[in-house]
């Protein structure tokens, strides 16, 4: 049982602060890997932290669980938190998300979809992102593209 599920037994749907990580993975064509999630829309691979994990360990574990990929060379782009990251899910559970955004420079393995969480994974060009992109993923990708552009300008 996941940590947050155990907490829910004690606090019901009351607001929780839940830390997690998401990872932007790109291929050799500079396309971004997106997850068509069973809980709605397109997003990035990632998820919630378990007890004793760091943000980096969460990112590595979640990507492995959801995609089958092993990742390394993580670069943290930003940590999102605060009132703008409040979420109430359809069952009434409330949470404030603290999300670390990463990129991975090393990706190995074969794509293997966790069908409990995902319909599919697909790479998209940054200028051809799918309809139904989740609000968080839109924000994360915009920051990634801005960061990439700044790095390109500084060369």
Automatic annotation (TrEMBL):
Decide whether keyword Acyltransferase is in the record. Answer: no
Concerning Pfam families, the annotation shows:
NUDIX
Superkingdom: Bacteria
Cofactor(s) recorded in Swiss-Prot or TrEMBL: Mg(2+)
| Start and end residues of each Nudix hydrolase domain | 15-147
Keywords from the named record? Hydrolase
Which family is annotated?
Belongs to the Nudix hydrolase family.
**Name listed for the protein in its UniProt record:** 8-oxo-dGTP pyrophosphatase MutT (NUDIX family)
Q: Which organism is it from?
A: Fictibacillus barbaricus
Q: What is the lineage of its organism?
A: Bacteria, Bacillati, Bacillota, Bacilli, Bacillales
């Amino acid at each position: 049982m996941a940590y947050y599920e155990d907490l829910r037994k004690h606090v019901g749907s009351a607001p929780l602060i839940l830390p997690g990580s998401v990872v932007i993975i790109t291929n050799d064509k500079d396309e971004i890997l997106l997850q068509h999630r069973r809980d709605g829309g397109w997003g990035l691979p990632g998820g919630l932290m378990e007890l004793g994990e760091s943000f980096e360990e969460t990112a590595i574990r979640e990507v492995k669980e959801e995609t089958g990929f092993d990742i390394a060379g993580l670069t943290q782009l930003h940590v999102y938190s605060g009132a703008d990251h409040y979420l109430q899910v359809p069952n009434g559970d409330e949470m404030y998300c603290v999300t670390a955004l990463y990129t991975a420079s090393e990706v190995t393995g074969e794509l293997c979809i966790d069908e409990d969480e995902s319909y599919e994974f697909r790479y998209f060009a940054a200028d051809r992102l799918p309809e139904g992109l989740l609000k968080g993923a839109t924000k994360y990708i915009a920051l990634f593209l801005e960061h990439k552009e700044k790095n390109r300008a500084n060369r």
